[in-house]
Amino acid sequence: MQKKYNHKQVEAKWKKYWEVKKLYKTKDPSTSLRSAQDKPKQYILDMFPYPSGAGLHVGHPKGYIATDVVSRMKMMQGYNVLHPMGWDAFGLPAENYALKNKVHPAVATKKNIQVFKKQLGLLGFTYDWDREINTTDPNYYKWTQWIFLQMFKRGLAYESNEPINWCPSCKTGLANEDLEDGKCERCGSAIEQKPMRQWVLKITDYAERLLKDLDTKIEVLIPHVIDKKNPPKPGKKTVERKTIHAIVRDPKTGKFLCLHWKNHPWTTFIVGGIEDNEEVVSAAKREVLEETGYDDLRFVKILGGQIKAEYYAAHKDENRIANVTGILFELNSHRHVPVAAEEADKHEAIWLDKAEITEERMTCAELSFWLEQLDSASNSCQSRPLLDWPESIKEMQRNWIGRSEGINFKHKVKDLGIEFEAYDSIPQTFLAQTFVIIAPEHPLVKKLVEGTDKEKSVMAFAEEIKKKKLNKKFDIETDMEGIFTGRYSENYMGTGKDLPIWVASFALMDYGTGIVGCSAHDERDFKFAKKYNLPLLSVLFPVDKELAEKVRKQEIFYRESGGILEEPKKFAGMRWDKAREPIIDYIVENGWGRKTVNYKLRDWVFSRQRYWGEPIPLVHCEKCARLPGGQGWVAVSEKDLPLELPKVKHYEPSGTGESPLANIKNWVNTKCPQCGRPAKRETNTMPQWAGSCWYYLAYCMKHKNKYEWDKEKIDYWNPVDLYVGGAEHATRHLIYARFWHKFLYDIGAVSAVEPFTKLQNVGLILAEDGRKMSKRWNNVINPDDVVKQYGADAMRLYEMFMGPFDQPCAWSTQGVVGMCRFLDKVWNLKARITSYKKPAYRRGRQDTNNIQYTISNIQVILHQTIKKVTEDIENLRFNTAISQLMILTNEMSRSEVISPTSYATLLQLLAPFAPHICEELWSQLGNKKSIFSSDWPKYDADKLAFDTMKLAVQVNGRVRATIEVATDASEEEIKSSALADENVKKWLEGKEPKKIFYVRGRLVSVVV
To answer: Which residues contact 309 (CB under 8 A, 6 or more apart)?
Structure first.
């Protein structure tokens, strides 16, 4: 009798097996260059966690399970998979936990990591723990410091003393991205504006590229073709490669250079593989030279992009999947050199007319694509987004970067002679401007009113508005308050008009210059002017005369794209939407302003006045500060990295704005790396986000607890193929990482333009009461308890089955129980396996209550399942993949006998979701190697549909017969079959039916 499934025994057994066999050890191109590159790579990554003291709850592993499912399928599909895990352990979360529990952050972090790692281990993930990273490891943050130094040396890191967001509770400065509703994202305290010395990174220098690449498309042409002459052979090893087809044309004769193979009945273009870090055009030129000797070529174009071709390579006795790029050259001359004897023995160069290049003669599955594009004026490529990301995340980044184009107009303060610039995003109506507003935070406010009778009231108003904004007690759209400074912009645009300057609540310091010229044609300006009885002037009017008169009298606000301008006179009669660029040029030519692009994005405050973070590798030297152009800050020598965080007993924030490191004199006092004189170290530390900006590269660099910037390894693995994490990181980590990556690309440290090709967000798992899991609500569910009671496989299955992956779902323990029942059903199916030789199997015995399905029908559902599960995992539709697996399992349960091959296939499809039970059952089938060393099943397109189907036939609403018809039978054929059935004839009694209805795939209804 079959032993009952015991998840504790099975899961412990296979975790130990995987560890002993090092099944998840990832191969690197440096140690196994050829074998690693024979396989296509897949880099699948989770956003690594910061290890809090609370440990994991059942909501945390959802994303990790998903990436594990994809990783396991990719392993079985023959990919070289990198699926790593590490710890984002520096920063405020870890430090605040340590302070609260009165334990050193280094000790607390180490303990928390042990807890997290143990919990993750329970779920049986494919992590290669030899690649585990920790941002607090000096060997790791050596490279965080190195990247910072490269930015410092290139002017992207600079010192600033401007007011910053200061959290009085955390006692540290915060970037804009660290705020939530004007409060500290970590502790919820109201933020203050506090002048402080800090380091800032010029992320704004990359704003345009960060924005542009959200919408960049790359051209690709990837049709899938199979070589008819040399199709893949079953059972042969399959190798995937990147290859080129070099198509060389002689412009004088119009003939094409081809190869005639001596040992095979082939005629081909020049074909070859692409070597490490080789461009496709260079690879094509090299192959032409090696195989034919011609070396005087002119590149014409790439023929469209890539084609995926499958064929049998007889000379290697293997199946090939070739990702082929076609490149067209023309001969400059017939100059050529002798080819190597090895090449001459394989093939000879021949010249063919285009008419001779036919499918009958050529061995080239891609031939029709190349011929179609030879004479095309451009590449007929398809395109795909550079970033396959959710549109919602892209939109969040667009809004955060906040690009706008306009004009910075020149102004001069009357009686003070102070010049300033005011930004305007709608310069078409610049002559309508009648007053100026300035943000309460702007430093010019104090200069405008200093020493005047308005100083006290204006400064008090400015402070009140700043507090309201910080505490989010102010709505920029509806709350409109202002105060007159008593100052004017003198002789605006040479018109002789002096424009009053007001401090206004809705003027934003981080928009444009913080000063805006106002007119009747901006809705908020219009409302503000009406509230404070300020003059207005209209220059834009509707075509409708009656409506235009209301605009002229300022009775209504008006700005429509079809409106007609009256001023400036040069553009009178032009539509507003057509006049923008001509008027901008007009303003610039007259020297009244300059064209500018503004961003909402602000430079990144990159220092914290706390202990637990990466030390900033700079020293301040007074002697070097006195040198011409010197500011005193000198980079620590790269050979002295890492600059390690000193070990201290007291690490509490000082509250003075100084880091606790400032009190460690023997660490602070050092020598200048540049002149050798006494100097002082920077005592601010890097923010939490520093280590996570590049961590995805670190997994590729780690070897024996050390990190080497090995560009070959980095370029082999990157960019990340699938990145999974929370949507809350859209405007922090994801922008920061893209910024750092683009900088590394600029200095040649990486080759990919973007770090993460595909991004997928994770939907939250809520508690059973529908609220977010929290100790506060006492609704947290520990995964350890779930695994202990129900097993890791049941929990993995349930979290993937709960609903769409990117949507929030409420936890249900009963749902886990349901998965246990499903796994029991899969386990019990093994008792029904029989051999094809057994009489019962030959007769096709089946459940007598299930007359419609036979063993051959199960084969159809099996191939449908292969197709659906493969596609669903690829597209992260895990819940529907599991549903299909349940359908297959139920169909198998209806048969008394199941073929071992069908059962094995079910296990392979289920294995990514439930790896432990599938390993056990796979071994019980007699397999010696892991199920994850087996090949992922492929479906047979001819077996995706039933050949026949059974339909009920009703007569006057009652079922009187069952007929079997071909699935592709027409409706008329089906109705004829129903009427021809003997049982149906009996109930018709020779009467002609009044109506016959056919319900597709279900029944035929006859009305007598």
So the answer is: 224, 225, 226, 227, 320, 321, 322, 324, 365, 366
How far apart are the C-alpha atoms of 951 and 428, rounded to whole Å? 72
- Beta-ladder partners of 438: 503, 515
Contact 140, 574 (CB under 8 A): no
Axis-axis angle for helices 105-122, 783-790 (nearest 10): 30
Sheet harboring 618-620: ordered strands across? 633-635, 618-620, 678-681, 669-671
Three-state SS string over 46-60 comes to ECCCCCCCCCCCCCC
Tokens, residue 643: 């600059």
Q: Over the stretch 429-464, which tens digit does the pLDDT of each residue have?
A: 899 999 999 999 899 999 999 999 999 999 999 998
Q: Which helix (H) or strand (E) holds 248?
A: strand 238-249
* H helical segments located in 39-104: 62-76, 92-100
Please name the residue that has the structure tokens 């990790």.
Answer: 64
The CA R_g of the chain, rounded to the nearest whole Å, is 36
Three-class DSSP labels, 388-453: ECCHHHHHHHHHHHCEEEEEEEEEEECCCCCEEEEEECCHHHHHHCCEEEECCCCCHHHHHHCCCC
- The residues, any chain, with a CB within 8 Å of residue 761's CB and separated by 6 or more, are 390, 393, 724, 725, 726, 727, 806
Q: CA 211 to CA 557: how far, in whole Å? A: 33
d(CA 795, CA 466): 50
Please tell me the distance from the alpha carbon of residue 970 to that of residue 974, in angstroms, as a whole number: 6
Which residues partner with 561 through β-bridges? none
Q: Which two tokens stand for residue 77?
A: 């599909």
Could you tell me how many residues make up the chain? 1008
Within 13 Å and on the Cβ side, how many CA atoms surround 316? 12
Q: Are 198 and 659 in contact (CB under 8 A)?
A: no
Tokens of 733: 């980590």
How confident is the model over 222-280, as pLDDT tens digits?
567 787 778 888 878 888 888 889 999 999 999 999 999 998 888 999 998 887 767 88
**Residue corresponding to tokens 């007009």:** 586
Cβ(755)–Cβ(693) below 8 Å? no
Between the CA of residue 624 and those of 156, 629, 674, 675, 679, what are the distances in Å?
A: 20, 9, 8, 7, 10
